[in-house]
Amino acid sequence: MNGMHKTLMAAVFGAAALTACGGGGGSSSSSSGGNPTGTVNVQMTDAPSCGFDHVYVTVSQVGINASSSAGDNDSGWTNITLAAPQKIDLLSLTNGTMATLGQATLTAGQYQQVRLVLAQNQGNTVANSVVVSGTTNEQPLATPSATQSGLKIIRPFDVAANSTVDLVLDFNACKSVVQKGNGSYALKPVITATPTTVTGLIDGYVAAAEAGATVYAEQNGKVVSGTVADSTGHFVFSTLVQSSTNGNYDIVIVQPNETTGIISSVPVIVGATTHVSTAGQPIALPASAMNTVSGTVTVSADASVRAIQTTSAGVYEIAAANANLDTGVYTTSLPVAAPMAGAYNGTLPVSLTAVTSAAGQYTIEADAASGTTQSTAVNVTSGSQTSVNFTF
Question: Is there a contact between 114 and 167 (Cβ–Cβ < 8 Å)?
Answer without folding.
Answer: yes
